[in-house]
Amino acid sequence: MANSRNKGASFEREVANLLTADLGLEKNIRRILEQTREKHLPDLMIGQWYIECKRYASGAEPLEAWWQQVLDATRTKGIPALVYKFDRRPIKVRVPLGAINPALHLDSPFNADLLWDDFIFLLKELYKEDIRAHDLED
Q1: Total structural domains within the chain
Q2: What is the pLDDT of residues 28-37, one digit of tens each?
Q3: Measuring CA to CA, which of 17, 30, 92, 98 is 20 to 30 A from 23?
C-alpha cells in the first residue's frame, strides 16, 4: 500500500513539473497534500482545471473508476482532467469534449483522450487565463 502511494505521489510530482515546464509557468504547480484526507480535492489544480493523476504498470485504457474520481472532485465547479500513464506507453489526458469545444457542455457524458502535447496545446490556446492566473496567485 505504501509503495503504491509513493508511486502515485511520484507521478503527481512528475506531472506537476511537466505542467510547470511545458506551460512556461513562473510559479511551480504543487501537489494538493490535503487530497489524501479530503476526497473532493484533486491531485493538482491549475485555474479551473482539477487534475487527477494515475500511474500503473499494465493496461492501455483508464479504468472508469479513475474518471469517476475526477468527476466527483469537480461536481460543482471546475474542469476535470485525468492524466494517466502505463509502463512503456505515453502519458495521456482524458478531458470532457466540452473542454475542447466550448459549444459542448462540460457535463456531457462524452470525453476525449489526448496525448500530453495535445493537452498542453489545448491549455495554451483555450485556457490562457488559467495559466496567467496561476502565476499571479499568492
Answers
A1: 1
A2: 998 876 555 5
A3: 98
